[in-house]
Write a structure and sequence with these properties.
29% of the residues lie in helices and 23% in strands. By secondary structure, the chain is of the alpha+beta class. The protein is globular.
Length: 230
Amino acid sequence: MGAKCSIASKSSTCLPFSQEDFIEIKNKSIDIDSFEAISVIGRGTFGKVLLVKSKENDKMYAMKQIRKDLIIQMQQIEHIKSERELLGTLEFPFIVKMRYAFQTKKKLFFVFDYIKGGELFHHLSKCQYFEEERTRFYAAELLATLEYVHSKNVIYRDIKPENVLLDDSGHIILTDFGLAKRLSPDTKASSLCGTAEYMAPEIIKGESYGNSVDYWSLGILIYEMLTGNV
């Protein structure tokens, strides 16, 4: 799949994350020592994702570790802060649930429910393409999720199979809100943002755009699920 690209935001070189930005969601003391690392289950530009186990209740979680120096170096501060805010407020059955957020001097940590089924990308690569009924099922759940996200004045901007997980019941879970943006009513975005193969034409052409770009990306994903091509 294509590389993610984004226009860098202007930001200060000082460390911009306060305790108010990154504190545990539940009213209790949570830090890195609250979890036992099991294995690495993903790697990204700013860090890695670990499968961890809570020392309190033995429950499994996915912990996203993000290096602060890389965020500042690549001028992605606002994207990370936006992701933290959105994942702490959006509540929907098909959106990954963030349980905790905390920080150390060098890293930020997001702790999510562990979704056992893996990426839609993996299942699509294995099958090459899906039958129409299966495609319709995933598309309907993604459409319902986008409609909820848009009702909160948020555009997602990165629909692709790598960002869709499957839970142990076979339902989709949308993850990775790093490029999502909350807009004021009647305003539009203008950043070059997303993954090339799934970008709407208005993004590529540098025009202003609204939440319709998510439906373009969903259409590309539906085509990919049905044909195996993108």
